[in-house]
């Protein structure tokens, strides 16, 4: 069954400021973003909004969405994971960035294909509202929008490539191709495993990466997908660790094959946390190239 993603309001979401701090010219606001309409049971979106403390709105700038990893024992297994990276982008490139707290499976365990699919659709919808907020910030260029996602955050980011289509560049870090790759081994999901995999397939990240790489025009001809305001498909950088206990080495190659010419694949002597300096350096170089004003 093909999932249905709701239409979103045309106006950006409202938000309240719960706290703020400055770091070397960067303003970091702890915000609560109004949830998407339609009775989102997760409530307001907890997020950070990161921007330069002083902004010249006459010149365009990039926008970024960061989606964190899942590790309930790690101090950065939450929206703080990319906070330093977002601040660096604000400081050096005047970027606006939103870093939301993800909710599934952080705030609720997978239980079965029906409920899990609903929660995934709801999470992607919340991320789309965060994109709306980024794009509503002064002087953010809609053609210079990027998404970074690690682990489950990367899986959600992959769905944005087809469900939303506005970002020009994605970095998917240590993601897996299918929701069942995580949920079935690590949570006690009832029912037949094959039925679960089959039911979840329309939401699997690998399917959305493959779909984002090409679309059919009205005559049925396959041609590259492109987001609004762009003549080229979104670029994707895949980053994987060679010593990742959870993810097989062929996973990155499977993603890269699905994405085709729009993708780059890099592997590192890293484990699942993917915290080496060269990983950050390659990600920064990729995004600086893809989100440049030229």
Give descriptors for this structure.
alpha/beta; two-stranded antiparallel sheet; 11 strands
Describe this structure in words.
By secondary structure, the protein is an alpha/beta fold. Helix content is 33%, strand content 24%. It contains 8 helices and 11 strands. β6, α3 (152-163) and β7 (169-173) form a beta-alpha-beta unit. α2 (113-136) crosses α3 (152-163). The radius of gyration is 18 Å and the shape is globular. Mean pLDDT is 91; it is low at 216-231.
Short summary:
This protein is of the alpha/beta class and 294 residues long. Helices cover 33% and strands 24% of the residues. Helix 2 packs across helix 3, helix 3 runs parallel beside helix 6 and helix 6 packs parallel to helix 7.
Order of helices and strands: EEEEHEHEHEHHHEEEHEH
Poorly predicted tracts of residues: 216-231
Give the oligomer, counting copies of the same chain as homo and different chains as hetero.
Answer: single chain
For the sheet with most strands, the description reads: 9 strands, mixed
Total number of helices: 8
Secondary-structure content class: alpha/beta
Assign an overall shape.
Answer: globular
Strand order of the largest sheet: 1-2-3-5-4-6-7-10-11
Radius of gyration: 18 Å
Q: What percentage of the residues does DSSP assign to strands (E)?
A: 15-25%
> Percent helix among the residues?
25-40%
Overall mean confidence score, pLDDT: 91
Q: How far is the N terminus from the C terminus?
A: 42 Å
Task: Kindly state the number of beta strands.
Answer: 11
């Amino acid at each position: 069954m093909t999932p249905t993603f709701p239409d979103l309001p045309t106006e950006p979401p409202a938000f309240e400021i719960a706290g703020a701090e400055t770091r070397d010219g960067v303003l970091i606001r702890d915000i609560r973003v109004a949830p998407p309409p339609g009775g989102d049971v997760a409530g307001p979106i907890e997020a950070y909004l990161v921007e330069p403390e002083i902004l010249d709105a006459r010149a365009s700038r990039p926008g970024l969405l960061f989606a964190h990893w899942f590790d309930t024992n790690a101090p950065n297994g939450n929206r703080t994971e990319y906070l330093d990276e977002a601040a660096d982008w604000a400081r050096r490139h005047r970027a606006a960035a939103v870093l939301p707290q993800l909710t599934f499976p952080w705030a609720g365990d997978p239980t079965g294909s029906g409920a899990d699919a609903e929660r995934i659709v709801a999470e992607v919808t919340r991320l789309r509202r965060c994109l709306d907020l980024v794009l509503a910030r002064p002087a953010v260029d809609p053609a210079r929008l990027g998404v970074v996602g690690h682990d489950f955050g990367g899986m959600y980011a992959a769905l944005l490539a087809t469900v939303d289509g506005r970002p020009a560049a994605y970095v998917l870090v240590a993601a897996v191709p299918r929701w069942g790759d995580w949920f079935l081994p690590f949570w006690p999901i009832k029912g037949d495993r094959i039925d679960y995999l089959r039911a979840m397939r329309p939401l699997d990240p690998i399917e959305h990466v493959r779909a984002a790489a090409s679309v059919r025009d009205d005559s049925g001809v396959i041609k590259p997908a492109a987001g609004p305001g762009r003549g080229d498909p979104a670029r994707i950088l895949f980053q994987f660790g060679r010593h990742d206990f959870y993810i097989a080495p062929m996973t990155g190659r499977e993603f890269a094959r699905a994405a085709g010419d729009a993708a780059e694949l890099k592997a590192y002597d890293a484990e699942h946390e993917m915290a080496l300096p060269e990983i950050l350096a390659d990600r920064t170089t990729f995004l600086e190239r893809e989100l440049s004003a030229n």
